[in-house]
Amino acid sequence: MACGDAAGFLGIPVPSLDVIVAHVGNGASVTAVRGGLSVDTSMGMTPLEGLVKGTRSGDLDPSIVLLLQRSGATADEVDDILNHRSGLLALAGTSDTREVGELVDRGDPGAVLALEMAAYRLAKYIGAYAMVIRQPHALVFTGGLDENSHLFRAKVVSWLIPLGLATADDRNSAALSGIRDVSTDDSSFPVIVVPSDEERAIAESTASLLNGQLPNFLCRF
Question: What is the pLDDT of residue 177?
Fold first, then answer.
């Protein structure tokens, strides 16, 4: 859905759309979209790979798995640690992104670290995908944390100054709803916020399948 809504906002047909979509909530992923189609994504065989998530670790050294097992953890225990006891939960004590934001406002060191790590990891992927896309039409933020935390968006974009990106403080911190551009006028390409509606996306994709069409899932989420 984010792709289709972003395309409409930017006035670009979906088949011509080149964007980087960052969806960060309890789950999190970032996707490089070229010509309206996904060409790379931060998730691998499972959602464990990639960004720091609510309870999942995201990218890590594979040797950590061996170290845990050599320390006595079973395969099931390692799976539980990496998928259910890591990420924001391990760093901030909660997997709820809104609670993390509230803890950051109170200066909680674990929550501050969690936000910094999540922002840094996301910025690295965005930088890599900008290379893949070459000339993105926009950076799209969607999902609970991306939509609701102006602080998180600002932290992510602050790492992307070499790409010519910058958020405008007034636009980024404004309490607005709907699709909006939060970048400065001289940003190399727009940074936009697109509200997520996963229920609508699932319904539209299901309708496509029932009509005998293969839905373009990427351009719906």
Answer: 75
User: CA-to-CA distance for 176 and 195, rounded, in angstroms?
Assistant: 11
Sign of CA dihedral 126, 24, 46, 72: positive
5 CB contacts (<8 Å, ≥6 apart)? 179, 194
pTM: 0.88
In three state form, how does the secondary structure of 70-110 look? HCCCCHHHHHHHHHHCCHHHHHHCCCCHHHHHHHHHCCCHH
Rounded average pLDDT over 135-160: 90
What share of the chain in percent tops pLDDT 90?
73
Number of domains in the chain: 1
Q: Is 72 exposed, middle or buried (0-12, 13-18, 19+ CB in 10 A)?
A: exposed
Q: What is the DSSP string of 157-183?
A: HHTTGGGT--B-HHHHHS---SSEE-B
Assign residue 161 the CATH number of its domain: 3.30.420.40
| Number of separate helices (H) and strands (E) present in the chain | 10, 6
pLDDT tens sequence across 36-51: 999 999 999 999 999 9
Domain assignment of residue 6, given as a range: 2-210
Three-class SS of residue 146?
A: helix
